């Protein structure tokens, strides 16, 4: 069984539940994806499935040859997913939104929106320095970053100003409100990472709620 599939973020909207409650949902174009490679324990040491999604503008000869073995062409994105059982998986197999069902919980992995270079107040929610007693230039400053003689340096990982966003982000345990296999659409309750048209990996939740 394949654990998930690739998709594209379309946008957000509101839907009504059966009891009349309004829910914010994200619409994801989930597939169709195609199996482009199968990893077996005997040959590769583990079991996984490589899937392809989207239409590529151009491919190198190596990429085109790799896809030709699976009898598919023009895949823009390739990703490898964990699989629990490979007996029912074959090269070129189509995967669509029907792998999920309403009420199921999924994890969504995407690239967050890039915010550029940001200071510590915006990036890490620092409070900043005092606004009085001559501290006119300390309002959004980070303050001290470490000790003096010992250790005489700033530890790695210290929160400071820098690039914000544009990083791999995972949102866990989003509920599938609707899975439309005919139109390859998933309606997920809540927000997912990234901007519109961004690439998403939707997989079964690793820490699913009971």
Keywords:
12 strands, 210 residues, 4-stranded antiparallel β-sheet, single chain, 3 helices, mainly beta, Elongation Factor Tu (Ef-tu), domain 3, 6-stranded antiparallel β-barrel, 40% strand
Determine the N-to-C terminus distance: 21 Å
CATH class of the largest domain: Mainly Beta
Computed CA radius of gyration, to the nearest angstrom = 23 Å
CATH topology of the largest domain, by name, is Elongation Factor Tu (Ef-tu), domain 3
What about the largest sheet?
Answer: 6 strands, antiparallel, barrel
Total DSSP E strands: 12
Structure annotation, total helices: 3
Beta content comes to 35-45%
The residue-averaged pLDDT reads 89
Summarize it.
With about 210 residues, the chain is mostly beta strands. Helix content is about 10%, strand content about 40%. The chain has 2 domains: about 5-55 and about 65-115 and about 165-205, Translation factors (Elongation Factor Tu (Ef-tu), domain 3, Beta Barrel); about 115-140 and about 155-165, no CATH class.
């Amino acid at each position: 069984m394949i654990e998930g599939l690739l998709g594209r973020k379309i946008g957000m909207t509101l839907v009504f539940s059966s009891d009349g409650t309004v829910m914010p949902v994200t619409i994801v174009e989930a597939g169709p994806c195609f199996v482009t490679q199968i990893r077996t324990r005997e040959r590769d040491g583990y079991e996984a499935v490589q899937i392809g999604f989207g239409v590529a503008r151009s491919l190198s000869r190596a990429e085109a040859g790799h896809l030709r073995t699976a009898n598919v062409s023009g895949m823009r994105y390739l990703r490898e997913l964990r699989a629990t059982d490979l007996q029912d998986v074959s090269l070129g197999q189509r995967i669509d939104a029907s792998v999920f069902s309403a009420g199921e919980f999924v994890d969504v992995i995407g690239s967050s929106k890039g915010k550029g270079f940001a200071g510590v107040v915006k990036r890490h929610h620092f409070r900043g320095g005092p606004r009085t007693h001559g501290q006119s230039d300390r309002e959004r400053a980070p303050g001290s970053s470490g000790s003096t003689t010992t250790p005489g340096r700033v530890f790695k990982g210290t929160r400071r100003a820098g690039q914000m966003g544009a990083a791999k982000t995972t949102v866990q345990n989003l509920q599938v409100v609707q899975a439309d296999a005919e139109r390859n659409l998933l309606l997920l309750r809540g927000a997912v990472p990234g901007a519109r048209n961004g690439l998403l990996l939707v997989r079964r939740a690793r820490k699913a709620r009971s």
